[in-house]
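Researcher: First entry.
Model:
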Amino acid sequence: MKKAMINSVGAAMLCVTATVQGGELAGSAPFQFRYAADLSELPAEVAPKVPGAHGGFAVDNKTGEVFFGLKGAGIIWMSNDLTEKKVLPVTEPLILEGNFHNTTILYRGDGERFLALPDNEQHRVYIVSDEGKLVSVLNSPLDLNDYYGGGGAFNPTDTEYADGKLYVADGYSAGNFISIADPWTASWTDEYFGGKASGAREYGLFGTAHGITLEPHTKRLAIADRANSRVQDFDFHGTFLENVNLPAGSLPCDIDFYQSFVLVGCLRGPQGYTSAPCYVVDKDGNLLSEVNPKKDFGLELFTHIHNAAWKPVYGENGKVEKLYALATAWNPGGFAVMEVVR
């Protein structure tokens, strides 16, 4: 992402809702969205857990499968076409007692697939198999620096796997560091970067390092600095590269990439506590489209969006047949699938 400014006036101008056959469309072409009610149902046994949802999605771009960690429920698996959903049989109490704040897929060198689940309430990161079996736990990196060594809180909010390492965003702590681990030995390296910013002009530091995402084409780490309504790019060694500002007060929780297009899930609307949007932004930071699930589709739970992710549906030839956006709401929780109509 290149340095750019997205202003709230432009965002408002791009928001278009039209009634068409099959339901309402929201947003601007080529990213107009339709609410897919038939795909937005979760298994009945997890329904009581949804109001407390934080969580987020890990989309496997090799298989199209989706994994969604949900507090108190475990891990929800979804098929490539999103028509099948099931709860993985997680039985380890250690995993279920905390709060899954996001979900990340890791492929080991031998091709085995695992998941990383940051738990901001129990102060640790779980590495589990793709069947829900606990493999290892990363606790606070006490030897990393004086902050953790002095008893500073470790409240991880997101992880990303890149360059054979697990990057952990400690967004809900006073430290706001990005710590780096070897997930296969369940050990911390001596590398870290970031820290708490005192203002939005301090690049390389964070108000809330809430989400971290690998930008696949440039091999950068894009970090959603929620409190400062911006996204900052870093290399794998923690060198600050670029900054993209979002509308003031929009509080981006996380971002996701599809080709050169960025999906941004926001905790608030740009005017504060108005219902929250998802923005679609290009690689230069220009706003292309906006969808507001509460305002556009009447989804009353979606005052606050906690996570949003692109979901390509792959055909047998490996080509993308459909494109969806997945979204979770917070306080109360909710889950929605929105189809990109082309």
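Researcher: Second entry.
Model:
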Amino acid sequence: MRKFYTLFSLLILFSVNGFSQAGRSVYAFLDLPVSSRIGALGGTNVSLRDGDLNFAFKNPALLSPQTHNMIALNVTNYLADIAFGTAAYGRSFGEKNFAGVGIQYIDYGKFLAKTETNENPDGGDTEVYFTAQDLAFYIMYARPLSEHLTIGTTLKPIYSAYERYTSFGLAVDVGLNYSNENEQFSAGLVFRNIGRQLKGYYSDKDGEHLEALPFDIQLGLSQKLKHAPLRFSLTLNNLHIWDLSYNSTNKKNDTNIDGSENTDGKIGFFDMALRHAIIGVEFLPGKNFYLAAAYNHRRHQELIMPGFKSLSGFSFGAGIKLAKFHVGFAMTQFQAGAYSYNFSISTSLTEFGL
């Protein structure tokens, strides 16, 4: 425990200088929802511990004996024909060593290359296309510290390639999970994306241009009601920084909490506090089926369009076990007419005798 407290203190000290302001970090794809269930719960959740391997992407301390020999595949049809997804496999070694490996990617599609004078880059008549992708590998490990407390860590090598520009980075996640099955309560704390960009996309007069990673401190609570099939989750994010507004030359930065236009770019205290919170609820009539919904206030305020009806900030999803497979679907609306769809499938290889 002494080593744990020492590590925790070092992480707190690191967080003072280890973050960037809103919109000023690289590898933003690391914050995308990694499964349909997480997408339905607002994009992230660091507290739920019920054997779903995908949650270990967000908090490695959520690895458990139930994630042993589990495989999970997820794909998302994102905005503007962008696609991203994840794949993961969990493995336990003995009774106190839980591990997992995973991959997270995003493919932005093909782009037509043109010069500043709208000509083909090679000067010929043949059109030239280029691609853009981001990729991160997850090497996850968790170990219980006591009956209710588990600590976990993730090592994440990151690779990014946009046309001829490439970048490498290395990040680490460190998380804790407290779980009390008798009280049907769980909580999680995670320090995400501790690390740095090792190779920038380009160099300038000052040398190689390096950017900060999307560092985040997240705290989550999940409570299932004893006499009703409902579970509520509260996830607090960006606890290391209060002001989540963006620098903008346009004073109409986003919207006010009442949906009106924000003409001075200033965000009130209550509005800003809610931007740090994601509220989720699950309907759990049995072990093999769930319905989920969530509200992400920051997403709502930044993407809502005054004068248009929109469910921006809300997300919905469902999952069911069919034979030996768990399948899930989620839908998120960003703006009027802009939807994202998440699809997930997972299974335990042990059920197939593997």
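Model: Note on the second entry: Helices lie at 2-17, 36-40, 269-274, 297-303.
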